[in-house]
Amino acid sequence: MLPSLPLLLALPFLMAVAVAAFPRSSRSTAAWLAALAPLGGLAILGWLTPAVMGGEIVRSLVPWLPQIGLDFALRLDGLAWMFAGMVLGIGALVVLYARYYLSSQDNAHRFYCYLLLFMCAMLGMVISGNLLLLMIFWEMTSISSFLLIGFWSHRRDAREGARMALVITGGGGLALLGGVLLIGRIVGSFDLDVVLAAGDQIRASALYPYALFLVLAGIFTKSAQFPFHFWLPHAMAAPTPVSAYLHSATMVKAGVFLLARLHPALAGSDLFFYTVSGIGALTLLIGAWNAIFQHDLKGLLAYSTISHLGLITLLFGLSTPMAVVAGVFHILNHATFKASLFMAAGIIDHETGTRDMRKLGGLRKLMPFTSALAIIASLAMAGIPLLNGFLSKEMLFAEALTAGGPGTMRTAVSIAALLAGVFGVAYSLRFVHDTFFGPGPHDLDRVPHEPPRWMKVPVEILVVICVAVGIAPALTVAPVLHAAAGSILGSAMPEYSLSVWHGFNLPLAMSAIGVVGGVALYFGLRKLINLHGVENTATGRNVFHAQLDTISALAMRLTNGIANGSLQRMLLGLVLVAITVAAAPYVANPASPNWTAPQPIPLLGWALWLVMMACAVATLRVYKQRLLAVLLVGGVGLMVALTFVFLSAPDLALTQLLVEMVTLVLMLLGMNYLPAQSGPERPRWRKRRDAVIAIIAGAGLGALAYSAMTLPPNTMAGEMLARALPEAYGQNVVNVILVDFRGFDTFGEITVFGIAALVVHALLRRTRMAPEQIMPGPPIKLPVPADLAQIMFPLTLTVSIFLFLRGHNAPGGGFIAGLVLAVPLLIQYVIQGTASVESRFGFDYIRCIGVGLLIALLSGSASMLFGVPFLTSGHLDLHLPLIGEVPLASAIGFDIGVYLVVFGGAMLMLSMMGTVKPSRTRTARRGEIDLQRRSARTGEMH
Fold it and tell me: Can you tell me the mean pLDDT for 174-192?
């Protein structure tokens, strides 16, 4: 049973890859592939249902980073089962709905990829058994929802809504991370079972208030609670399938899920009670009141979603066992009727061309079936009897009347609940009346009609659930509700009844008052004011942008003060910070170094270091002669490489030599960007200041290097030497450290290297020389160097492969081999130009970087299939005919990724540096772009 949870989590990701792998397939094929993820997930969930409903917690555990308490732990209890079912069930309906909603101009494959990535993130979050793992998936939901909300990137409102959602929820995610770390510090573990069992310990800690407020900040931002609620209406710029999925059952429910998940650990204090219930009540009323005055169908639904999320938050804040049951129940009810309403609004928009209720009306005659579905779902939202919303609203009224705390608190909660009932009926009535009744529609560019048959099926299914739960809750939703609420309350689970009729009581009277008051409020407002003429002011949006503008202005002022374009100032700041950080420990705890007696230096060593010093001093003397200065700096690097040879460090020597060669070419190419004339001479005092700082930094670095080289042999280096062969199956300890012992660091480094290459590509792909910098005449032809460069390529390719294959047991490896392969190609770029080289070599450097990172990730992750940590090495001895025994370590796969990233990244950066040249066309000289002259490999202009 254990592998089922990883498969449940992996299905959406695998199907997203499958959809992306067939970009030319039909829309129906993409939809079927996407639907396999939620349908397959529902099958797995169904298989696990008997165990979960029986009270069992299904678990899966793979050690990941146990040193920091992070394990890939998955945990499926009743609450996680309920949310996973919502994510998968409504996800399957959204996939079907989107098949008919998206236009032919929309990229359906990209949409389904984003949707499945979000589905994977939500599933990971709800079944995580480790708080740090939950945080990873939490942030994945923010990123993937940003992509979904901004799917129509050609629209400004979509870009703005996506950015606003990312900033608000991303900021809340940072706060949540702080809260999670504090909880881990209090409890001593991030394991969810341990945290949930440590509620008394957490509440008794002095860090509890800080942890609580940080966690609540993450919850409130995600679930659009006051004062962070304003991002949700602007997220309505997303396609309606996105709104139906994210803002009914998934993204906005992530916050209340975490509130329910951590309820046993955080609830039970007055601070929790007043903060959560107070914010919930405010959000409940603010959202409901604003929903009445919206003109956009999705805008009304967005504010009603804010209100219902406030209702759920209020119930969890009250913290009584029945309030928790009611909160869980309303999570289910709201997901069903709100998803159906969003889809109905999308159908109306799809068939009429507008969501503006001022242009709609009378659609019950033109779209009778859709109208009936939307009206039933609206009545469920209003809490009308015999529909699911009525049952949880009754529970809200009952809990409000028995709320804890002083009497004034009980009165305030009861009034808030009653007002919310009145407002809920009013905005539901406006949704129905202004859309389906009255005169209209008018000013439409098409004749409305019913949508395609299968587009209505998801709405029909959800409306049937609303009716079924409302009529027979004990037969439909009772087992799910009992399992989900029981996983929160445990032994405190109360006895309750889901009967439709509880007799004449005060909650029923409040429901009746809410219905009558809501009808009176809506028609009263229609008589008193012109609802269609109300102008809605986006106060939250204006405050958000004002804050962003203020932060941007401060950042710009700080940037201009520090990074004003002066490379000298940046280097000065960097060196001063490095000196300060390095010297701080010695200043705090002064101690004289315990250096051993120096060994005598052979004559060769003195010769190397004298040449190195001579090159360094000469560079300072001839710095105005750029070419000569670059060559002298190259001489310093060459002497460093020979020093490594002298000190018996062949791997470092090879790396230094190749990096020096590539850097020399880079600096020569970079001269294209330098002004023809150097700036004015700096004052003498600044030269002296810089000399003093350089001497201090160099002396300190030299002292650190000497201290490291004179350490006793029984250090970490000795441990690495002892463990390299038996544990990582390699004799070259330097390569073993890179691809095994510190492989995760190496993966991060090649990722940064690839990103840096892509940034250089993005910055330089359209860079042009100014007309006055163009050298007259045709390019100088160098036939002999060009021929030699071509002859070198197969030889260096052979050397590169040789160095790569021997790297695990002798000097070499992926990094060195990648640079070896890059050198001859770089020479050809310099001598023959971009067009000539790319016409003969079919390298796509950007794809090379991506493939390399993917290979490194997959090869490192493969070890997790065998229950061992990421990038753990394996070993295999192959016996081949004629060749004999060939030892292979699994780290070679990771090294292939390093090889491709280093080669692709180096070539992408340096080829871009070498392609900044004048265009032969006048349009390019004037700064215009000729799209027909773009390189097929790197995208730069010829």
Answer: 94
**63 sits in which H/E element:** strand 58-65
Structure tokens at 317: 């804040």
Radius of gyration of the chain (CA): 33
Residues 6+ apart with CB under 8 A from 505: none
The DSSP line for 846-894 is HHHHHHHHHHHHHHHHHGGGGTS-TT---EEEEEETTTEEEEEETHHHH
Per-residue pLDDT of 844-899, as tens digits, reads 888 899 999 999 888 888 777 776 777 777 777 777 676 666 667 778 888 899 99
Tokens of 435: 């859309």
Residue type at 740 in one-letter notation: D
HSE value, Cβ hemisphere, 13 Å, CA-based, for 287: 35
Structural contact between residues 207 and 185, judged by C-beta atoms closer than 8 angstroms: yes
User: What does DSSP assign to residue 441?
Assistant: -
Residue-level pLDDT at 932: 46
* Contacts of 743 by beta carbon, 8 Å cutoff, 6+ apart: 860, 870, 871, 891, 894
Neighbours of 450 (CB within 10 A): 15
According to DSSP, residue 23 is labeled T
Contact by Cβ (8 Å): 424, 518? yes
State the Cα–Cα distance between residues 16 and 432, nearest whole angstrom: 37
What's the CA angle centered on 753, arms 65 and 662, to 5 degrees? 140
Q: Residue 394 belongs to what H/E stretch?
A: helix 388-401
Q: Confirm if 414 and 402 have CB atoms less than 8 A apart.
A: no
Q: Which 3 state secondary structure label does DSSP give 482?
A: helix
Token pair for residue 417?
A: 């609940």
This prediction's pTM: 0.77
Measured distance CA(937)–CA(834) in Å, rounded: 10
Residue 489 dihedral angles phi and psi, to the nearest 5°: -90, -25
Residue with tokens 């990971």: 124
Res. 145 pLDDT band, cuts 50 70 90: very high
Helix (H), strand (E) at residue 75 = strand 70-76
Which are the contacts of 691, defined by CB distance < 8 A and separation ≥ 6?
none
What span, in angstroms and rounded, lies between the C-alpha atoms of 226 and 255? 13
Alpha helices in 262-320 (DSSP H): 263-266, 270-292, 297-318
DSSP 26-47: -HHHHHHHHHHHHHHHHHHHHH
Which one-letter amino acid corresponds to residue 25? S
Look at residue 936 and give its three-state secondary structure.
Answer: coil
The SS3 of residue 60 is strand
